[in-house]
């Protein structure tokens, strides 16, 4: 019973006399049977409610701290965690973005509020997950191999009894102990595969000679350090900790120098596994168009758009932290069009929904581009000043006609245009890129121009030769006299005209299942809008012809002048990959390990650099850790992979924030046949995953 009186005691008491009960009521054990206190005026009396403090204090905290939720999703929300008894009790939005400022005192706007999504608010579940990695561990078999002195057969292969990945027990070590084992293993592998003896072991293991060439230094000696592969993950705000893997790979040239005594100039660093090309949700067509990785406009740039065309993307469902910006577009009477096969969660927010046959996005965009070119509703000045559409192409080779091949041609060459405040060149161009192209005027005169003749530089250069932008023959097709004789040429624009001829309204409608009037309406809306944001996502990047989809989207964007301006751009919101434009990373990754810059006040651009790391695509590891080599009936053995992309043998793999094995295609082959070739597999992560399960070392973060 609630009073602590047992049923047996209660029955004993009830058998007593009434007088005895009267006495018993006075005892504490039967005090619960007393009547309530009589209160004549309830307004003058309030009962004791100290017990409510337990209820009222349940949200009391000991402290709070701010952190950034930084997954690979382009948001990076700053949140506030509350701590009680050393445990996170809740995560909330701090609503303090208006107070943010950079080193120059520039403030952010409070319009970014609110930040965060339900995933971020529940992040503490991952912090205290049963899968959380808490201690550094080494696989018992690998540890035994090290303790036995790294025994190997004549071909360098260790006994399989040491490499029962996925079956072995794990041994917990201190950080100092595990660091010793890692250092011993790295030194052993680098030593084993250095020199001619190491190269012979790799030959005996079946690696082709082309792969062994990648291990050579400038003296032709083999460096085992090149069998190391390091990979940092994608979270941008983890730049120093994740890109630190590549810095470490560059620093390991010190290990190579220690082992081979080649000095600072000839010692080599490791190889670095890439990120961008490996992730199949990213748009490969973007770097094909503009030469750099994808660079989305920020979400707040939606504010500057008049029209948003969303395709392959569902912002409502997967970009929960930033709906305010496209909601603001709705409030300002902007227009939103959602192009998707199904009526997804974003569709109700649009002005109209375009239902498209899955995977036919390239056909839709080529149809729109064809209409724009045939009806001449493109932005003429933008197309001529900022695109390669006026560039002349040789029809015999389908390559760009170089100005160097046209004798006596007039040139538009503004020289170096990217200068600092002192007039010094910020970035020099490689010699192989210092080449010029040709455009043809309406009077048939060819004019040469170099890579820096863009925008106003082109217009000014044409004026010095007596021409204007209007004089450029965008749709040129004819012969040009070259040092090799007269050759047929066409502009890029003319070739696109031919490409889109078959994408009539009727044909485009058949290919995409979109009514002709809807294609016409979408085209007109794009042409009429001042700033169009083409928002794409990983949905359209999952197709085998994804590069064609990406390039067709850029075709429409460039024709209408919607690239590189506020509110007008092409973005693929499939992750966060802005490391290439993070100015400090080159100095951080490539700082000279042999002569570090110790002055903390030095300008980041003046940090001494010595790049020893070489990047490599993970695809070759996923292809059986070998290049693409084909045995053909006529040509025999053909090495398709070129020297610039040739992989090296993989013996040491270290990943951070990247579940490489868990996401690898041809997964069984990697586990059963490829990973056994690797002698050290190291993982640093915060939750146990497939990559950890088959690792040799696992480090918590």
UniProtKB/TrEMBL annotation:
Record keyword Metal-binding present: yes
InterPro entries: Mopterin_OxRdtase, Mopterin_OxRdtase_4Fe-4S_dom, Prok_Mopterin_Oxidored, TAT_signal, TAT_signal_bac_arc
GO MF terms held by the record: iron-sulfur cluster binding; metal ion binding; oxidoreductase activity
Domain annotation 4Fe-4S Mo/W bis-MGD-type: ranges: 62-131
Keywords recorded for this protein, A-Z: Iron, Iron-sulfur, Metal-binding
Pfam family, one: Molybdopterin
Keyword Chloroplast applies: no
PANTHER family: OXIDOREDUCTASE YYAE-RELATED, TRIMETHYLAMINE-N-OXIDE REDUCTASE
Name of the protein: 4Fe-4S Mo/W bis-MGD-type domain-containing protein
Annotated organism of origin: marine metagenome
